[in-house]
Amino acid sequence: MLSVFTAVTCIITVVSGLLIGAGVLLILAGIADVFFTVLHPDGFGFLSSRLYGGLFKTVRLLTRPLPQRLRSLGLSMAAPLMVPVTITVWIVLVLVGYALVYYAGMNSRSFNFSNPGLEPSLSEALYISGTAISTLGFGDITPATGVYQALAISEALIGFGILTLAISYVVGIYGVLQQLGVAAAGLLHQASDNSEPLSILVPHFPGGEPRDIEPQVVAHHSSLVGLYEGLRRYPIVYYYYSRRAYRSLPYTFRMMGGVAGALRWGLPKGHPARQTPWLPALIRGLDMTISFLDERFLSENLEEAPVPVPFETFRSAHEQEEEPENHWVARFFEMQRYMYKLARIKEPADAEEDYDQYKKWLPFAHRNQAFFEASARDLGYELKDLDYGPGERLF
Fold first, then answer.
1. pTM of the entire structure?
2. What residue numbers bound the domain in which 372 lies?
3. What 3-state class would DSSP assign to 203?
């Protein structure tokens, strides 16, 4: 009889230990994810980041059969939903974790049950945990020992802390979104053609003379740095889908990249418009930011840039007025013609110098275009949507 009692006692002890261990793990998981998501400077919560991506993919899948307007409406709701879902997951992890710890030691000695119909059970443990984390404290079940009283107090403090940090997190998210909106609107207001990044430069070449190029490049670099740091700190911003397509990351990076590439490689060496020391910084910043977004968010890694055509092929296309067969060579000449016309440069370009420019421009331009198309596809935009003006909405 004693051996049976001993065996039952051992089983109860083991089960209680397992419940406490599982509860502690859940509590630590919730607290750790809050820490890495909200307090860590790189914002890489191991649960929240997976929730963001998983929820957005789910919404993409569910909205795929819908008409475009309804699909756009659904996608625009995905990122705002991620915030309450993530906060709920944090609270549930802590709530269930504490409930398991309470349940492991729940009896009439450790808890006071003021209602005769109440008795120790998992549902009652969840109820105690819920009242503790929400600081409601109805009083029908209360901890009776110092250990459980301390646990209830700690749970209330953690619950209050999660809600407080969540509020600051939301404020930070919408601060970065405002930065993105300001950067995108600034690009849109300068562009005479919303589908052509080079049109941003038209007001800066009155009479063919460059004017205020450096402040323009500095402003783009400042916007880019703000977006880069904001996306590192608040990765959820990547998934925000606006009904005004110009307020999106794909549009912003296409326009910035087009301006930077044209100033750097679309004009002859030594031209004053490409001498600002901030231009290399802008190009490097674009490359670093795209690399970060490619590694962290894109569903498929960006393709490598194509190999430059041989010099003989380039020179042949350079000397002829016909459209080159190679797509990227044709785009380079198109960009160069646009910039030469803007700067009113009449002397013909040297083929060897142009070839050197083309080889340096190609990796940058290809990467910028590849990111534009891949990010637009991942976020659910159609490429034609990103040519819309400010008066056009997706829904």
1. 0.89
2. 179-387
3. helix
